[in-house]
Amino acid sequence: MSELLARIEPTPTVPFAGNGVTVTSAPPMARFSLRARKAADLEKLLGVSVPQKIGTMQSGVMCLGPDEWLMLAPDGTKIADGAGLSLAVTEVSDRNVAILLEGPRAASVLAAGCALDFDHFEVGRATRTIFETVEIIVVREAAERFHVEVWRSFAPWLWTAFVTVAAE
After folding, report:
1. Which of 92, 122, 147, 153 has the highest local Cβ count within 10 Å?
2. pTM above threshold 0.85
């Protein structure tokens, strides 16, 4: 019976495009929730510098809180468990998916359900916030491009909300 089970992606594979915005499902990727008292421990584990200012992103790692980071990496990436270091590594690749908003109206589509001022949201900024009632993480990747992380179970609803606003 289990051989008949197949994972169904929660968002369409065909992008929505219209009215100055494109809504696209991001390709699969690895995601790791990282907790540490000292950023130096994470840097030792990962072998790269990590951002230490909340709301910034560097080398695929975003700082979400004083001791919390989220790392995005190519699909299939594995990292050590951090044994011997004062930190916690949890792979959340199956929990999250990402939706990409791109185009001149991308910021206004996000602003329709989120109180943040996306006109002043700098490229490279990353933050956890709420779109209506759904927790999301928003990364501004370029002037007209946003990467939105959301839990897999909320992705169909968020996709529909983005497309509904974009179609208006």
Report:
1. 147
2. yes
